[in-house]
Specification:
Helix content is 48%, strand content 23%. The chain contains 19 helices and 24 strands. The strands form 5 sheets. Strands 8-7-6-11-10-9 form a 6-stranded antiparallel beta sheet. A 6-stranded antiparallel beta sheet has the order 13-12-19-18-17-14. It has a 5-stranded antiparallel beta sheet with strand order 2-1-5-4-3, sandwiched between helices. It is elongated and about 125 Å long. By secondary structure, it is of the alpha+beta class. A hairpin with a 5-residue loop joins strand 9 and strand 10 (257-265). The chain folds into 3 domains: 37-296, 2-Layer Sandwich (Beta-Lactamase), CATH 3.30.450; 392-498, Beta-Lactamase; 504-659, Reverse transcriptase/Diguanylate cyclase domain (Alpha-Beta Plaits, 2-Layer Sandwich), CATH 3.30.70.270.
């Protein structure tokens, strides 16, 4: 084989082999990363869907309890139970009509008497009386929610809740709510591309799976018969009541293979599936393979052309080797000939190269050292960028006015896909800060927030950022660095929301602890002072509690404290704050409640405790002291008056409610 063809073959083989190895490694790496990123995206959307469903149920329960709290409804039902009258029935119907005017998503409202008989209903169409009686029984111990399927398997959210007038049970309401709002949320398929969907499903009484939310590729509700459930493996797994998990390479209702994340929503026995077609996820890989194959072909062709031209160039000058040898012999060490093996040029090439080995070696060492340093620098930059993106906390680079760079955790939390998208709504992360006492603001002491953090590293800096109506507490640390003669900053936001929650909860009773109570008192005090909003303090002390611990033991004492906490939770509103004030004392901060309302609530609680049978067949009582906020007094004075009222109750024989006006 001639030298020319050896050169062509050798260079082409090296180029082809290099391209194939690089392409194969890059395709595998990219395929793995795309799959991991898709799973993370589906998990994120799944968690968001779970929290939205949770919030949706909470808000609807709150609406039902608000409806039941109407005094006119309570009084009318009490009168109706004592003396059923057509006029009272008309009043109840008018109350329902007024509610339908205010709320458009209600399918039906049913009001039952204390024997589960229907008093009034909007539609007068009762599809499942057995389920209605079940909901009535469940609601006797508090609000109860259930997912029901009516004609054409349309899903309704059914919520039942008891109605009390003072201490008297007067009836139950059952709301049947259309899922329009929930469906509208699920139809917003941001981040799910062309084939992704978020599905909600449940079993019916026949063991079939009903997917009752909007579908992208089929009409809904969609019924998967028991014999065909293997065509809906992700939803089947979601309904197994386990922890959330990733389901890979299984069929969905279209018999398409998908990657999905599944969750189980226990309050309504609902499975949540967020999925995307594997074909779509892997489409970029397919396109990448085609592109790389084209690049490989082009590289091979170019390498052949270049090697052919190069071989012609070498062959043309081979007759000049003697002349080059002569020049090197005369001291011209700039001339070089490459070493060729197994041919007639080998001996000549070796002789020429030996004359300049020293210079060549020095040059090679220098080039190798430069190459090593360059490689180390690139590797260091890659590692720094990798660490920046995998850190579990939000990390940003900023110049104090805008964001220069942000890591993946920032985009995951904010929901934006890029800084350009973020800048369409905000200029800086400080625009998302919520004003809270003791927390960072965009300006602090005539400094930007980041300058303030760097200036006082010994302080603990916190900030509140609200997302999806949920307030998150972050711990902020920062440092500065100089780049291109400009001062920039690195800021790290550590989400401590859950830690704060644990720190504010009494471990035994699961009520707010003293730290949280002081915080809420300060908020109520500032709100009352600024907006003249009223609130009352109710202090509760268990009578002769020391005897319980002394005679029955501390374990029984702990059970008593837990039962008291349950009673308080049952009889108070969601807007009221319940807390353990210390030992056997409890506190209620009742917002928008005057002294009379607080007295009624105190009597309800006192009676409930008096009639309750505690552990070890104990019968106990409580003493209650109440004070109402005045504009001209401090928090300490307000608490002192409540404490004096409690002392008065103790002095007057216990088991009573006292007020200091």
């Amino acid at each position: 084989m001639s030298i020319k063809y050896k050169i062509i073959f050798f260079i082409s083989a090296i180029v082809s082999f290099t391209i194939v190895i690089i392409s194969y490694s890059y395709v595998n790496y990219t395929q793995k990363n795309i799959k991991e990123l898709s799973v993370k995206q589906l998990e994120s959307i799944g968690y968001i869907t779970f929290e939205r469903l949770k919030e949706y149920l909470f808000h609807n329960k709150e609406k039902v309890e608000l409806f039941n709290s109407r005094l006119l409804l309570q009084k009318t039902l009490l009168s109706y139970l004592e003396n059923p009258d057509k006029k009272l029935n008309e009043i109840l119907e008018n109350i329902l009509k007024l509610l339908y005017t205010e709320r458009g998503n209600i399918e039906d409202i049913i009001i039952l008497d204390t024997n589960a008989n229907i008093i009034v209903s909007k539609s007068n169409n009762i599809y499942d009386k057995q389920m209605m009686k079940k909901m009535f029984t469940k609601s006797l111990s508090g609000s109860y929610s259930h997912l029901s399927f009516i004609y054409n398997n349309v899903a309704l959210l059914c919520i039942s809740s008891p109605i009390y007038k003072d201490k008297t049970f007067v009836g139950t309401t059952i709301f049947k709510i259309r899922l329009n709002t929930l469906n509208e949320m699920l139809e917003q398929r941001g981040g799910l591309d062309d084939t992704g969907e978020a599905l909600l499903g449940s079993y019916d009484e026949k063991g079939n799976i009903i997917i009752f939310t909007p579908l992208r590729f089929s009409k809904y509700p969609l019924i998967m018969l028991e014999k065909d459930i293997d065509n809906a493996i992700p939803m089947k797994i979601a309904l197994q009541k386990k922890e959330h998990q990733v389901v890979d390479n299984e069929l969905d209702y279209r018999r398409e293979k998908v990657i999905s994340t599944v969750h189980y929503f226990e309050p309504l026995n609902i499975g949540i599936v967020v999925k995307k077609d594997i074909k779509e996820i892997m489409q970029p890989i397919k396109e990448l393979k085609i592109t790389l194959f084209k690049i490989m072909l082009i590289g091979i062709v170019i390498s052949i052309i270049i090697s052919y031209i190069f071989s012609l160039y070498i062959f043309r000058y081979i007759n000049m080797i003697l002349d080059i040898t002569s020049k090197i012999s005369n001291g011209d060490f700039t001339q070089r000939i490459k070493i060729f093996t197994n041919d007639e040029i080998e001996m000549i090439s070796n002789s020429i190269n030996k004359m300049a080995n020293t210079l060549v070696n020095i040059n090679s060492k220098l080039e190798k050292r430069v190459e090593e340093k360059t490689h180390l620098l690139k590797e260091s930059n890659y590692k720094l960028n990798y660490i920046f993106n995998i850190t579990p906390n939000i990390t940003i680079l900023t110049n104090g006015e805008t964001i220069i760079k942000a890591n993946n955790k920032f985009f995951e939390f904010t929901g934006f896909n890029s800084l350009e998208e973020f800048f369409t709504k905000y200029n800086c992360i400080c625009d998302m800060f919520k004003a809270r006492s003791g927390c960072l603001k965009s300006k602090m002491e005539d400094k930007s927030w980041i300058e303030y953090v760097v200036s006082y590293p010994e302080k603990t800096h916190k900030v509140v950022i609200k997302k999806d109506d949920v307030e998150h507490m972050f711990l902020v640390n920062a440092t500065s660095y100089t780049e291109a003669a400009k001062i920039n900053y690195i800021a790290v936001f550590e989400n401590i929301t859950e830690i704060q929650k644990i720190a504010h909860t009494d471990k035994l009773t699961q009520l707010a602890n003293r730290l949280k109570i002081d915080e809420i008192l300060e908020r109520c005090f500032q709100s009352g002072k600024r907006y003249q909003r009223i609130f009352t303090i109710i202090l509760i002390d268990i009578d002769f509690f020391k005897k319980v611990n002394d005679h029955k033991g501390h374990l029984i004492g702990d059970e008593v404290l837990k039962d008291i906490a349950k009673i308080l939770n049952t009889l108070t509103r969601r807007v009221d704050l319940l807390g353990r004030w210390g030992g056997e004392e409890f506190i209620i901060i009742s917002k928008e409640t005057d002294m009379d309302g607080a007295y009624i609530l105190g009597e309800k609680i006192r009676h409930a405790v008096e009639s309750y049978l505690f552990a070890a067949d104990l019968k106990l009582t409580i003493s209650v002291g109440i004070s109402e906020y005045r504009n001209d007094e401090s928090i300490e004075a307000l608490i002192k008056r409540a404490d004096e009222a409690l002392y008065m109750a103790k002095e007057k024989g216990r088991n009573r409610v006292e007020i200091i006006k």
